[in-house]
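Rotation project, supervised by the postdoc (A.L.). Task for the rotation student: set up a whole-complex structure prediction and record inputs and outputs verbatim in this book. Inputs entered:
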Amino acid sequence: MSKKTITRRQFVAASAGTGAAFMLGFNTLDALAARLTPAAPDATPGGWTPNLWLSIDADGTITIQSAKSEMGQGVWTAMPMIVAEELDADWSRVRVARAPTNGTYNTGTGGSTSTRTSYMPLRRAGATARAMLVAAAAARWGVPASECSTLASVVTHGPSRRTASYGELAALAAKQPVPAGDVPLKDPSTFRLLGKSTPRLDIPDKVNGTTQFGIDVRVPNMLYASVARCPVFGGSLRHVDDAKARAVTGVRQVVTLDAVDRLLPARVAVLADDTWAALKGRDALVLDWDPGPNAQYSTDAARANYHARVNDDAHAGVTASRGAVRTAGAGEKTVEAVYEYPLLVHAPMEPMNCTADVRADGVDVWAGSQSPDSIRTGVARFLNVPPDTVHVHMTFLGGGFGRRSQTDYAIEAVQLSKAAGRPVKVTWSREEDIQHGYYRVDGIQRMRAVLDAAGNIVSWEDRVVGPSLEAYAFPTRGGGRHFDAAEPPQYEIPNYTLDMVFVESPVPIWFWRSVANSQDGYCNEAFMDECARAAGRDPVQYRLDLLKSNPRAQHVIRLAADKAGWSTKPAAGRGRGFAYYDYDGTLVAQVVELEVPATGKPKVHRVVCAFDCGQLVNPDTVVAQLESAIGWALSMVLYGEITVKNGAVQQSNFTDYKVVRMNEMPKVEVVLVENHESPTGVGEPGVPAFAPAFLSAIYDATGVRLRTLPVKPEMLKAGAAS
Amino acid sequence: MPSFILTVNGTRRTVTADADSPLLWVLRDKLQLTGTKFGCGVGACAACSVHVDGDFARSCQWSIADAAGHDITTIEALAGTEIGRRLQQAWIDEQVPQCGYCQSGQLMAAAALLASTPHPSDADIDNGMSDNICRCATYLRIRRAIHRAAGNGEAK
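Outputs recorded:
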């Protein structure tokens, strides 16, 4: 038995109970993963693989695994930085490898959880390896380990000034016992890497076209597929005439695919020698769809129904409460408002795609995924084969935003390869992406507050009316829970009730960048602005007064207000709006400054964002994510709307599902809080505060109070206020 | 199927394809130049941008028949020009890409912009770059990187 295997098993055993990632057991590394993803981190001869997360070669090269999917948020660099910090690695000798998808690692990437959940396990992995390198050096020199220090992949014995590199020590370190119990971690004030902006390791390949995305995968003997999907949600295929499709040069096969319950609609696929032939063949199909039970469904009617049911107390399920809500007494004031939000689609720049090869001896799947282990287990379930025979090869993701945590596109590729008996790559058109996506839920929220004579909020009610993401994504749990809107108020409010009137919908719904917070931040904070104005108070001071016991929140709010010059008037014609949001412990305050010209289309000039996510890992990445989140949210408020008529999505491409472009991107000024609190999320938390700050700024600029998204120019055209 | 001759990144290539085949899919599927990306198929996002005879072109809107006889440059050959190398370095210096999928098209559009307007103003950049969509909204860094590559100073 090799030393490497022994030390790995020992390490896993010694680490049991110290972190979820280590508790999943140890499997032989999946050699097939090397077919596309970078090599597994087995050290070269003379090197050492101390644990699941890193290896050290004799030449000093350090390979660190990232179990998280790189989709632009920078984990490909941040995860290795955390290991390297505690290892005291020479960062210039660190390279990153993709952890295999074999059930050993938690590969799920979403909810802004990568750093939050990986921080301590990765620090321990680095610290444990460092302790064994120090022990190896101490043993070689016959000195106490306590007299040795580490820096940049070198162990130094202070009294004798002897040094040895990690590469030299690797083989000897492999013979050291794995420390029992937790090794000491660094005092964060001594961090050398964490908190310092570090160039991202994935960027050089992204400027020369060599980065491999799922859509770039090519395997021998592969066919290319394009798929026609029933345009109406829940419809089925009556008949297909494929004669013309088969006559297209390059078309090899036409396959009718059954619907997959809760995952994929009825479809007809054309398999061809290249993508264009497949697309032409698909367009030549003559299809007769049965629209099924949702042929009359429309989002207009659905929204009218939400409003009709907003006072349906008998069917409102309480999701959270504190104290007892009440009506206004003498001298008190009731504030009430109903906010509307539409369906949204993710539209990542890389359309959905996947390549699969289903054989008698196993299955290979190549995909960019936020949840490769879900693909592995989902494909195994779908084909009724053991998960160990399903090999998922991860690529980079051309955007995720939650869409790539679903497995539909991978199951589809598997269906196609099984039917064809050879490898198949399926590439969705943009129209399919827009019309057959998994959507951010639509709905309305009715907010109601009672202000006492001093303007303080003494009672708060938040009712959600609409479909339930929780019920869709986790059908056994029922609706109205964690992933549905209506977070408890983030302020010191003694009495509140949150409830939900759950309305069924045929539209598939899913996680979308910032999930329910995208509705909740909007409704809660837009309403807070209304409460502040109703109380005759400054919206910033009003919030500060409601967060007296939360100094971190107060700090973030003050930073944003100060940076934006909140106490001074904006330039003539401009309005300013403020919002604050606590996103699972990440604290965000934003100030939006805009003007509304006569055309009615708001022009955002400037966004200030103060941000406290605890210990910063790679600060420049945090800034980039906030710029990104603000651009994302600006698309949402200016354009974001999917409408359904006669059971089918009406939008089709970037021509009618518009997103923000260069000429609309505002100046973004980020203020990062530096501290050593436990790190929290970064990728999503910049989204929720933007919409309410934007609406507040419109009110400030025009006096028009809007309670619907997106904001359309006709709502604000000159004269609309009257 | 007919054959077409075109010059791609300085090399003469003969391609057998239907005349209506978009240049995009010829580059990606037949010539294995996958740096050029599919984003929308209707000329609305510019992820597929290349240069045709040095000019910015959306390759999903050019058929192989139209492209035949022209000089095509893709992201794979961007480093062959001084402007291209400066832009790629500026993209790294400003840490522009996030997911990176649209960046080939962004860089090709930026190279065409700098070729015609060596020192673009912000308004020039708005005009030259607003065909290109980035869902990660890296626009601020793209703007800074173009200014940097143009030697306009580190405009913020």
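Student's summary: Residues 1-40 of chain A have pLDDT under 50 and may be disordered.
Supervisor addendum: Chain A touches chain B through 66 residues (CB under 8 Å).
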